[in-house]
Amino acid sequence: MRLVGPALAAWGAAAWAVTASGGATAVAVVLCGAVATALLVRGRGRGTGPWRTTAVATAGVLLGAAAGAASAGLHGADTKRGPVPELAAQDARVTVDVTVSSDPRPSAPAVRGRHAAPASVIVHAEVTRLTAPDGTVTRVRTPVLLITRLGDGGRHGKEWLRLLPSTRLVQHGRLAPPRSTGEPFAAVLYADAGPPRITGRPNALQRWAGSLRAGLRAATDGLPPDARALLPGLVVGDTSRIPDDLRAAFEATDLTHLLAVSGSNLSIVLLLLIGPAGRAARAERGGLAPRIGLSLRVTAVAGGVLTLAFVVVCRPEPSVLRAAACGLVTLLAIGTGRRRSLLPALAAAVLLLVLYEPWLARSYGFLLSVLATGALLTIAPRWSARLQARRVPPRIAEALAAAAAAQAVCAPVVAVFAARVSLVAVPCNLVAEFAVAPATVLGFATLAVAAASLPAARLLAECAAWPAGWVASVARAGAALPGAEADWPGGWQGGLLLAGVTVLVLLLARRASHRPWALLGCAALLVAVVLRPTPLTRLVTGWPPPGWVLVACDVGQGDAVALAAGDGAAVVVDAGPDPDAADRCLRDLGVSRVPLVLLTHFHADHVAGLPGVLRGRDVGAVQTTGLLEPYAQAEFVHRTAAAARVPVVRAVAGERRRAGPLDWRVLWPPGGPGAGGTVPEEPNDASVAVHVRAAGGVSLLLLGDLEPPAQRGLLRAHPTLPRVDVLKVAHHGSAHQEPALLRQAGPRIALVSAGRGNPYGHPSPRTLADLRDAGAAVLRTDRDGAVAVTGAGPGLRAVTRGRRRPTDGAAVTPARRRRASAVGQPTRSPRARPSPSAAPPADRSTVPARGGPSRAWPRTRPPPSCPGHGLRRRARPRRAARRPGCDRDSAGPGRAG
Questions:
Q1: H or E stretch including 730?
Q2: β-strand pairing of 622-624 with 618-619
Q3: Element (DSSP H or E) covering residue 320
Q4: CA-to-CA distance for 439 and 443, rounded, in angstroms?
Q5: Alpha-carbon radius of gyration of the chain
Q6: Which pTM was predicted?
Q7: For residue 560, what pLDDT is reported?
């Protein structure tokens, strides 16, 4: 236990020193060393006693802090000296010789507005030779983060992802400084697109490890999709095959630790030598070592070799290093004949690793690994004993205590960076735990046998597929529950808040441990929160409102609309930019069946969320426009639908469809088999526009992102377009609207889907004013949150889940209000625009009828820069040049967003 204090001090000092200046670090090191020396000298002069013990312990803590700060300062200096940081500050183009130091990993394409950033590959590397723009050549050893964009269709992705650590490359590219301080690299190298230019093979050790990993992947190629993706992750941490939906399910259920190779995997590797982990205190008496006559020292050496091989094959990730260090410390105790508990081994491992690699001090993965291990060693045994004292079977008590202890200490840290809390983590970990060990053991057997006999390895992989598939099924089933996770404040404030709540809950649970009815009541409440039965959820939150016809989901800067198509069913029009947001919206509505997903066009802010719509739902078909532009996003839609075995069909003008109470007709775009006209050449103008008749006769007009030319074309094609109750305003309410179409539609409610703080200025104040002049009540997701339309005829109303009540006088019913304001009967009163100083309406004022007066939204300042002109990394603030076609009040006919 004496190592715990120095280990924690070294950890904290290293975490501080990697971002501190060199002078501050030097002063701190000197002060800690001086005070520690003084304490040791004075303690030695006072003989024995409590004062000397306290002085020695304090000196040990100070020396640990000094060592951690010194190591971090020296490592940090490597990222600040030499020509690489200087050239990065100039955004210079260079030619570099680099040595790969990690496995490459793909980055998920980010959605920015209507664009999706191209897929990239990220890899850590070390620059060994630098050619500056002026031709100067310098030999260096500087760590960098190498990022390269893949070619069209990702044609070079496989070549990059096959790279092994220690491979040598020559790359051209641009250097840039890291985005934040405290990063373990001196610069970011944005390499030119293209295949990697290999100049040197990886070393023999890495080739051996790579062949083992490749053999495991080959042996699992024929398995079912989930088992094929998951088994390499369970065994060696290879998550390259795991799809986004399965990864999201593991995150929602807090099962991601199974994909981070850790102590449990190493325990299996050492199982044959030192026995099960529960007997680690007397490990030399367990396992095969004493049965085959190995001495303690030979056992320790053999275990050390296996541990090092484990690190090489599984890669030196934070959890792997922590597990290996703990294992090596324990093996050292075995070799010397000492029997110690694992807590000092954990402290020694932390101290050694922080001094060797100070960047681990700021790694969330390392923190979670240490916290989980510490909880299993200190908290779990006590909780298990208490459960067994209450007649819980030992095996169940140990598993439950381990899962609960790890969750209690790790959940606050997860909240810091994920801003969420999983409510199903403990039961999912319990149910999955029974399959983890068989899957891992069989997976390691497959890994070992694949090098000698691939057919035999495939047979073992078939056996491992059953438990691996079970783990994946548990993750998917847990994530599919409506209340699987809850939003929580992020950052360290949110983490501290959750830690305080956790302590309070544990104290209350301890006081109520002798009151079974109280415990049963709490358990029933938790089950209700997780299952979220629709009647109970509606009673508590008012959402979803009963009899909803349409819901405009709050998905940020994008579109996603759900149309009620019967019990638990909805037709989804567009999917927004974020799969999680789309999934959450449909889950809150209780939608488990989607007869049709209509994607109006292929911009990323309408289609990137498609995986979230498909997640865990029965989907009949995906319908799209005929213009396959942008091609990358069209390919993404077809690839995603094919993976889910959902057919993709094309929308044709004039076609009619029905789903439950819904009846709709495609109005636009023209063209297609048997149709006249041609498909527009611009993606926005090729948006699918539909006229929908919903339950109760409510009429809806959904316009996608049609621009004024296409809106005029729609009017020409349908001169008798009927008036509608609800209009989904085109293009997020941009300034580019056709007034004649707004007058022809005459909506009673106008819905605008836009993201808060979007850079495009959506929705335009001019468009909002035109809609209100036409007599429409305007609701917008950036201010009101998700918006539901319910009722019909005189009872038509809008219910918001809002962030705040709008200030324009439109009648809106917040979801928590049990009574709602009704839409008045249509009238034909003159249009009027009361002044902004007019008195605000009462809480239950009616939504304006067609042609009725409405109060104008206050005009806001136009956006400071011109959006929609592609993606560009912001190296430093630049003055935005005015470009034609910007989406402002004074903009011309151009397009943005």
A1: none
A2: unpaired
A3: helix 318-335
A4: 6
A5: 31
A6: 0.77
A7: 96
